Fold this protein.
Amino acid sequence: PVRSVVSSQLPMKSRILQALTRGTKVINVNTIPQQVLDTKYAVRGALVQKAEEYHDSLAKGTSTLPFKRITYCNIGNPQAVGQPAITFPRQVLSLVNYPQLLENEAVGTLFPSDAVARAKEIVSDIGPSGAYSHSAGHHYVREKIAEFINIRDGKKKDDSSYASADNIYMSDGASPAVQRVLQLLIRGPQDGIMIPIPQYPLYTASIALFGGTPVKYFLEESTGWGLNANDLQTSFDEAKAQSTTPRALCVINPGNPTGGVLSLSTMQEIVRFCVRNQVVLLADEVYQENVYAEGKSFTSFKKVVTDMGEEASSLELFSFHSVSKGFLGECGKRSGYVELTNVDEVAAEQLYKLASINLCPNVDGQVMMGLMVNPPAPGEASHELYIKERDEILNGLKVKANTLVDTLNTLEGISCQPAEGAMYAFPSITIPPKAVEEAKKRDIAPDAFYCFELLDATGLCVVPGSGFGQRDGTFHFRTTFLPKAADLEEVMKSFASFHSGFLKQFEE
């Protein structure tokens, strides 16, 4: 049975005591592996469970809550908050899933010619979409991904770094690919994975689950969440001094939860650090289409590494991408991939073995990925609409990002760096001492207390900064800017009112 929301909100020590009084089951708090108990995933934690309880109450019409709906800004899930699906991929996927339509005489009046042609091409190559595929994904789709990478990075067929389908492994979203690579790296607690602070909780959760040790390096909030290569070396050396061997460095670019976008020079310094210290580089690049800041652009680590030539030729690189972000926002289709660069053949074989345990990635997701990396070309029937839909979404995100950050920065006790990319803002908040004391009484982090109070007052669900990591003595929360512009404006008015009231309630 699913645990009650009330129980899940209790601190772990309280839940353990509660469990001990319920009698002995085979699976209980004493027999569950410690790695599982240590695993935490803030973006789907107690706050979200409470929000879902409120959502159900509102849906039943039995609620006495002071708001009419829950606004989920806790996770980058665009279509859940109103973003429309891009037309062309959905049309093609419909035809692939019901290929009998392709034989219908009316298909040409229902679907554009290029969607019909693309669906026929896919069905001809991959066969029934309900059948298993190769464990790394259909070769047809991986070829399209390789072509996308080569075009993106300006690589030609005679380049030694030309992407190949053989080095691409698909998965149900980028997260399983990240986890499989971490399984290759972590042998025990002596192995460290260097992660940015703040970071996406997938990394701390997975490192805990696999029994490794997180090695933290801090991003600099005052410089727009920049990364200092000297700090990487300091974190590496401190870990070594404590008998932890950092085996990999994770970099999220554009950043989650910070929205920062790395400069080329910083990326080159990161590569040099990895080469110098024989550290594997994990490049989380799922937000590569989401760059909004003037003068900023996305450059892949694959391009940086290969353009550096002999200097970086020994670096082992794993690069991740997904259909969930960008402008498609197809989170529910669950498709991602990892590209391997300069990875040992035995390691690649072991990665394939791990992938094969799950048989294959879901085929609908594979098709969606193939359509993301190979959109309608200029001159094709769907190209104009595709570009229009893409630009409307990306331009809308840019406007909402700027509006959200500007509004936050007008509020007392809040400071927010520009959201240069991704889908989030990560403002710093000043929490009054009395509120900090109240949080201690409730045995929760001060910013978690703030976020629970925000949810209770407004129905706005965000994630406390303590779930991502932050410097001691600082407090933050992460919010998306994905809701529709009108909804976001309403949300910010409600938030501003709550924040003012919160400061007054706990003023000295």
Notes: The first strand starts at residue 71 and ends at 72. Residues 1-9 have pLDDT under 50 and may be disordered. The longest helix spans residues 383-408. The CA atoms of residues 23 and 113 lie 64 Å apart.
